[in-house]
Design brief:
about 375 residues; globular; 11 helices; alpha+beta
């Protein structure tokens, strides 16, 4: 038997930190983006005015924590109609999370999703749309969607989501290096042109976090991401709080590429278990002719190849140019569930009318 407790977001959640991360170690999909530090800090900075709570599932007999489902409920407008939208508490669009997933004991994946769907269907008052973007395809939700939200009460849709290039880090680097002549040429070209000013280093020193973050921000200002990167004050505050927490647990690395005192590129990676998450990178566009992004990526990959990690994961949907060099590409899915209701019926009719409306006559 499983007991469910609804817990509102707030400082009281900190008492769950150790229990949460112990559950994550035996979960079906353990990632850095599901750690207590990442989820709590993300909710703290990106909650906005949305309703945010956590469904805690425990074994009734021994009280052991079996699952944590962060849940966000927001109001949006669709075809001029207000809709209540239910989604992951740290949804990719609203936060800095990549491929977020609930923390579920791998031995209880199916039953916890069953209890989740039952809670959403019976305990939440009015809602119109359930959304899970960048979902793991092997998820108990995706595999049992039609059973968890059956017709005619619900209409479900699954579409291909964002993709992530995955790099094997337990490979023989020399063989990989020798197989990719273009990469060798780009790295050697930069080393030759910069000469003695060329400098590449990696640090995980907690004392360097704020300085490295400042270097990242200044490099981003000099690069192509200045409009949509970390410049938003909200994002910067988030990372200034999160990164020291990760560094204290040896889960954070910076790679820095310099031309003397000039920053060429800065890359931020998170580590969790055998996985490396190549999360953020910024390059100075004045060095675009030297392909600093590609050089920085592969020098960082080389660094981790010697450290005993198994896989390197790039952000979903943001690294298509790395596909030719990846070991494989991880596909996600976007899941939607619409409740069959008057509100969704009106929205459907409005969309249908707009689709078949005659085009205006040309004058």
């Amino acid at each position: 038997m499983i007991d469910i407790e609804k817990k509102e977001f707030g400082p009281q959640l900190r008492t769950l930190a150790a229990e949460w991360d112990e559950l994550l170690a035996r979960s079906s999909r353990p990632t850095i983006y599901s750690t207590f530090d990442y989820v709590y800090t993300s909710c703290l900075h990106f909650r906005g005015g949305d309703e945010l709570f956590f469904l805690l599932m425990r074994d009734v007999e021994d009280g052991r924590l079996l699952a944590v489902f962060p849940v966000r409920i927001s109001t949006a407008i669709d075809c001029g109609r207000p809709i209540r939208r239910v989604e992951a508490g740290i949804a990719p669009i609203a936060t800095e999370a990549d491929k977020p997933y609930p923390v579920i004991d791998k031995a209880h994946e199916e039953v916890c999703w069953e209890r989740f769907s039952a809670y959403i269907r019976r305990q939440i008052g009015r809602w119109d749309l359930l959304v899970y973007d960048e979902l793991w395809p092997q998820s108990g939700l995706n595999r049992n969607l039609g059973r968890l939200f059956p017709w005619p009460g619900y209409w479900t849709r699954v579409r291909a989501g964002a993709e992530s290039p995955i790099f094997r880090l337990d490979c023989e680097w020399d063989a990989y290096w020798n197989a990719h002549r273009r990469l060798r040429r780009k790295i050697r070209s930069m080393q030759k042109q910069l000469g003695e000013r060329y400098c590449f280093r990696v640090t995980c020193d907690p004392g360097e976090v704020q300085g490295c973050l400042d270097a990242y921000v200044s490099t981003e200002l000099a690069g192509a991401k200045a409009e949509g990167g970390m410049m938003r004050e909200e994002k910067l505050r988030f990372y200034r709080e999160l990164l020291p927490k990760l560094a204290a647990k040896k889960q954070l690395y910076f790679a820095i590429l310099q031309d003397g005192d000039e920053m060429v590129g800065v890359h931020i990676a998170f580590v969790f278990g055998p996985h490396v998450y190549f999360a953020l990178s910024a390059c100075n566009t004045e060095y675009a002719h030297l392909s600093p992004g590609m050089v920085l990526h592969f020098l960082f990959i080389q660094y981790f190849c010697a450290k005993g990690y198994r896989e390197g994961d790039f952000l979903a949907g943001f690294a298509h140019y790395l596909y030719p060099w990846a070991s494989h590409v991880e596909q996600t899915v976007n899941v939607q569930v619409r409740k069959i209701s008057w509100n969704n019926g009106i929205i459907f009719l409005k969309k249908l009318r707009a689709r078949f409306r005659p085009a205006p006559a040309s004058q």
